[in-house]
Structures are given as C-alpha cells and as structure tokens.
Amino acid sequence: MEPTPISASSASLGSPNTIEEPSAPQSDARVEGREAGCTVGGIGQSDGRAEPGSTGVPAPDAPDAQSVRVVTVAFNPGEELDRFLASLAAATARRLTVVIADNGTEHDVVTAAAQRHGARVVGDGTNLGYGAGANLAAADLQEDWVVVANPDLVWEPGSLDVLIDAGLANPAAGCLGPLLLNTDGTVYPSGRALPSLVKGAGHAVLGKVWPTNPFSAAYHTAEQGGPGGIRTVGWLSGACLLLPAAAWRRLGGFDDGYFMFFEDVDLGERVGRAGWLNVQVRDSVVIHEQGASWKARPEKMIRAHHASARHYLSGVYDAPWQAPVRWALCGGLRLREELEVLASRH
C-alpha cells in the first residue's frame, strides 16, 4: 500500500484522532542520496533509487495490509536484544517477520537470539552503519509494512498494531512513530521539527549552554505532552519507525551516506518532500532502554554526529549560491565538535 500524497481534500486524516491540516506538498521532491562534505555544488543529486509508483490506496480492511517486517540493527547487543524480540510477540497480531542486521558482534550471540525467537539474520558482521544495516535487512521486503527499530526497545502489548491501525486510518502518513518513553517514564525525544536555518543554528550554538533558549524551545515543541493523540512532526526518531512498504521502496529507505545520526532527519525531510506526513502516534507506547555502548565512546559518537549534521545541511543548502551558508554552518559545526570533544575528555 502506498500512502496517498497530501491534497486539498486531506485536511481530516482519520478517526477518532485528527491531524492538523498540512501545507501543500512540494513538487521538487529531493530523493535519496547526497554527497558528503561541505562543497560548493553538486550535492543533493538523486542516486536513482526512487521509483515511480501509483498513488492508489487499498481500503483499510484490505487483506494485503496485514503483514509487517520488523528490522533491527545489532551492534554488540546484550540481553536487550532478547527482550526486544520477546516483546514483539505481544505487540502485533499481524503476520510478523523479524530480520536482524548483524553490524558487528559475536555472530553466535545474534544467531542464538534469532533462533530463540524465530528471526532471520543478515550481514557478515561488517559495521555498515545504522541506515545501511536497516536497508540490508529490508532489501527483500515482501510485507505490507516495514518497521525499523533499535534493539534496545521493549514493545508494549498491542503497540505495533496501534501504529499500523493509525497508518491505515491516515493514508497520507508516509512515516509513523510511537511515543517513546525512557525507563523512568519520561518522554524520549522521538518527534521534532525539521531544523530550519535560523532555529537550527540557534539550537546548535545555544542548546548546551542555554537549554531554554527560544530556538531550542521551538525545535523541541513536538516533544511536549504525554500519551494519547496523533500529531504531525517534521521528523521521527530512527529508534522506531513504521512505513508502508510502498513508501519505503519509493523513498529508497535510508540514505547510506549517513553512517549514524541524521539518517532519520533526512528520511523525515524526504517523506515531506514526497507529499506525505510524518505522524507520531502517541497512543502507541514503546519503552526505550537506551543501550550504553555509545556512552563508552563519546568522542567517536560526537564526531559521527557532527559529520552527519554537516552532510545533512550540505544537502539542504545545496544550491551554488548557498555556498557561503554551507561554509558558515560547517565551520560552526566543526568548532562545536572540537569543544564537545574537549569537554568529553574531562
């Protein structure tokens, strides 16, 4: 099922929840694949993975809308992988396929967990990055829906079915995500606005030293509130995403140019540019246990995060006349990167 692009008749997008009326879709959809780096031009070109498709949508009760593939990317997982897989059994009553991308670990650990829970393993242990690993696990997608989820999640009973039901009720939704909660019950930031030039720069510069600044407040607006309801956001956390299979294929999945971080921001932007909505379904609750592997290597994570930020902004501001903007943003990000690395060493 391919989601219906937004049109003037798509103001009300489902019952009982209603999503705010979106702006008209942009016709100049930016598709998959951007060159990395802060260069003057030639960034943001299509890599040819997008494919044209019909916008016809089967009825919500169509029998071909009842299968789902969950893909997860494993990198040195611990017991959380077993908890993740076990929780899926009660998360959906639909036909479920689980595929694990082995991105670097003791292969026997992942294989044993997969065998215990009826999952399939792909990959040879090479660390492809998060987005590329997810793409590999979804490469032979035959199901009607695809979920990309971190292995450190615990699904609440019925939570995946709530997500899929919301997608069926709101055919303009090209990407959906649940409300992610930390283990202490606080809200994990899983739905945000796309970073505009002014707000994004303000948040990047002031977010650490002045957390309540107006730029960061605007960026975090979509995170406010607890469970319940449906809302549109600019992008959804790659920790847990649901897409109609047709949308995943048309978008080409994640951009492999992002090793980690910002692949979800980029996907959210492309969903919007294709004329669809990014929808957070806050009636679907998933617990994010947050593995500690990245915290043990803060410098590597800081550098990866800033490299992906530069890659993303170089694609957003890719016109030749925007070169000064790219240079300024990339320079500012490099300065912030070094300051954060220095702080992490103390």
UniProtKB/TrEMBL annotation:
Annotated region described as Disordered, given as residue ranges: 1-64
Keyword Transferase: yes
Coiled-coil region(s): none
Origin organism lineage: Bacteria, Bacillati, Actinomycetota, Actinomycetes, Actinomycetales
InterPro entries on file: Nucleotide-diphossugar_trans (IPR029044)
Ranges of Polar residues composition bias in the record: 1-26
Stretches that traverse the bilayer: none
Record key words, sorted: Transferase
GO molecular function (one): transferase activity
Protein name per the record: Glycosyltransferase, group 2 family protein
